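Backbones bend. Our protein:
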Amino acid sequence: MDILFTDAQKRSGPAAFNIMVKPIGPVCNLNCSYCYYLEKKNLYPGKTDFRLDDGLLENFIRDYIANQDVPVVTFTWQGGEPTLLGIEYFENVIRLQKKYANGKTIENAFQTNGTRLNDEWCIFFKKNNILVGISIDGEEHCHDHFRLNNSGKPSFKEVMKGVSLLQKHKVDFNTLTVINSYNVRFALETYRFLKRIGSTFLQFIPIVERSVNKPDKSGISLVPPSYGSEATVTGWTVNASEFGQFMISIFDEWVRKDVGRIFVQLFDVTLANTVGAKPGLCVFSETCGDAMVMEHNGDLFTCDHFVYPEYFLGNISEKPMMDMVRSQMQFDFGINKRNSLPVYCLKCDVRHLCHGECPKHRFIDTPDGQAGLNYLCAGYKDFFHHTKPYMDFMAKELLAKRAPANVMNWIRNKESQVVKPVLPERNEACPCGSGKKFKNCCYGKPLYQF
């Protein structure tokens, strides 16, 4: 049953919301195989100029700041590749933000593939305290497997030049790593690489896409979860169980060595949900709908992963921004994240940690045949069950106003108490019971196999 807004709710709207801006739409200098956004050009047939024009940009900045009922307003700039617009464009952004700040603190987050960064860009980021997100998928062989430029050439070396420049100018940056069917096999290699290049906040984003052989009338071949069964999972989509093991491998090293020093988004939000706090990430929240996306021409959509005609809210040049933000359509989209969970999820012992994850991934059936299960369910279940003892300990530390990093000492103390078996001599009977001599049987095998 649909839940309707009251008049008071419609008047007030959310105190804070986020609109990710695509100031150059889907235009990019890379042609990553798994990119779900490049084909959004097909939503604007015949269009060649995807630049968010100055007038629309100013109106957006003015209204976005004015409608945020919070002291700190964050702008998120993404693409495509936003550096294609040039530094002058974003210098104008900063000027307009100052013009309309009205006493509020303005922050900016800038997502880039890093291939076009130079000293001038890095000086601009540093001067304006802009947090930069770098898209990088691990070591060279992992990154270049899917992330090629428009000429089909690898992009890793150019990205690493950009990272070096960010380090040189002491620009704050984090990393966004897409976990796909290839790099999922290299968990610790990827984690250690990202630490080595200076990332202290790591986002691991599992790529899950379905495609159809014949695009729809809008020219889109990567389809939403509501699409019929004729859609098939793409070759670059990560396997659910393998993704779970990928995150478990990284967690096992992180929880022993890096708590409080390296921040992994999935670990942070899992701990937040464990203690009952807001996770700060829509996909692990009970409901969603507070993170929309605006295309280059002012078109507003419900979410970055739902830029489809059926999820179009309106255009900011035609409708007041808050009318779309607090619309019944957007409210229903957000509340349905919770209300559409299958019974299998409602009975799940880790639902409070997952909340069904992103609705975009809910296209498989539950074991009892009900639609709407998340494709990544098996992997997340493995991860949440594996990490529970450690999360519970860190949650208790937090509630006692102590550092969660104490978990590292707790683990060391526990593991130092493990009694290791005394190995027999080479010519003695093997402890496995085979009747063979130890040297001819289990000698050299890991101790846990005895």
